[in-house]
């Protein structure tokens, strides 16, 4: 049997258990549920994960039985998810119109670019704050060293009086 003929045959009830586990997931980043028998009814289980899971970056439902109705729900969920870290969402080879597929693809491309931009900005801010912290630490070290040396000089000084004896005084 060649790769194109392999089918997993997971149905909506199995998807329910998988997506219940994904609500607690903090490690799984990629999930391919392609070539199954998943239908629109599974959306109730999938929806919460898309809205709440911050760790999945790639999700594939390629070659299932989703329709335009599910595609519309997917698109709304993807747009609504505040902490969406997903950069790839594949839903081709279902019963979804070309226009819905294009809308989802456009959203995902735009979202992926925004995530990359945020990532670069966060990296730049971290590097700038680390440089600032390093400079602040060096400045504090220099100032502290200066206080210690000037403090030790100002604590006690000695002078020789007119009579030749040494007098100690605090300054």
UniProtKB/TrEMBL annotation:
It comes from Durusdinium trenchii. This is Uncharacterized protein. Residues 144-163 have a biased composition (Low complexity). Pfam families: LRR_6. Residues 115-171 are annotated as: Disordered. The keyword Repeat applies. Keywords: Repeat. InterPro entries: Leu-rich_rpt, LRR-containing_regulator, LRR_dom_sf. Residues 116-126 have a biased composition (Basic residues).
């Amino acid at each position: 049997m060649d790769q194109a003929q392999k089918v997993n045959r997971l149905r909506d009830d199995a998807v329910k258990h998988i997506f219940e586990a994904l609500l607690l997931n903090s490690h799984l980043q990629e999930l391919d549920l392609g070539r199954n028998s998943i239908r629109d009814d599974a959306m109730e289980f999938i929806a919460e994960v898309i809205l709440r899971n911050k760790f999945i970056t790639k999700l594939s439902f390629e070659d299932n039985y989703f329709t335009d109705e599910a595609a519309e729900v997917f698109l709304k969920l993807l747009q609504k998810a505040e902490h969406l870290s997903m950069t790839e969402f594949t839903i081709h080879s279902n019963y979804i119109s070309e226009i819905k597929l294009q809308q989802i693809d456009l959203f995902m491309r735009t979202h992926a670019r925004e995530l990359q931009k945020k990532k670069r900005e966060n990296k730049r801010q971290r590097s700038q704050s680390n440089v600032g912290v390093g400079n602040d630490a060096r400045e504090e070290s220099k100032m502290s060293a200066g206080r210690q040396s000037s403090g030790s000089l100002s604590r006690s000084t000695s002078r020789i009086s007119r009579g030749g004896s040494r007098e100690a005084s605090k300054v």
